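Hi there,

I know you've been waiting on this one. I reran it after we fixed the sequence typo, so this is the corrected version. Both the input and the resulting structure follow.
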Amino acid sequence: MNNLITTDLKMTSLDIAEVTGKRHSHILDDIRKEVKELGELAEPIFRLGSYKDKNNQDRSCYEFGKDGAMQLALKYDAKTRYKVIKRIEELENRGNKQLPGTYKEALIQLVGQVEENERLETSKLMLEQQIGELKPKADYTSRILKNKGLVLISQIAQDYGMTAQEMNNLLHKLKVQYKRGGQWLLYAGYNNKGYTHSETFDFKRKDGTEDVSMTTKWTQRGRLFLYELLKENNVIPKIEKGVSEND
């Protein structure tokens, strides 16, 4: 392990090479491609650094935190992505070594760790949903998300005379999705059928902590799936109610 890792969750391209079993030069190529695609958004995520090799020669590497590691995880297969996420968890646990002085401090520290673990687990699940949707590249997904054929759950709910919350709760009752960390996620049996397209975005909570969330839109294929499922459960859109009433 190189000496650039610190307790504030700083990682390097060397760490990713070690975790994934890939050559460091290949990891550098992956990061350079990511930096090029992200443009100015890459500046706060990836920072060019250096390290001493076994011959005491200066070599280039990249330094980054959780955001950078998660960004890279999207590029790899499920097993590799799992290893990267586990390394992040190890570093977070390693960075939390300060012992509480009082019972109250211990409780505060425990609550903070539970909340952080919950956020990390939710981020992992969101990553798995995106991979399940076969998202090949960020730029391709961006174009897809601009497609007029994609709709929000609120638009589908409106067709049935419901609010988005009512529709989400109904889909939860029908075992289509479940809620984790305030985020609706599809069950494993549905997240690889092309029903949705999702993208993640970073934001800051009211207390200043950084977090990640996800916007999910339904494809026309997913919309048809919901129509058939809801119809089987005697839930039909307003327009069909109107037709049946007039007949």
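Quick highlight: Residues 103-132 form the longest helix (30 residues).

Best,
R. S.
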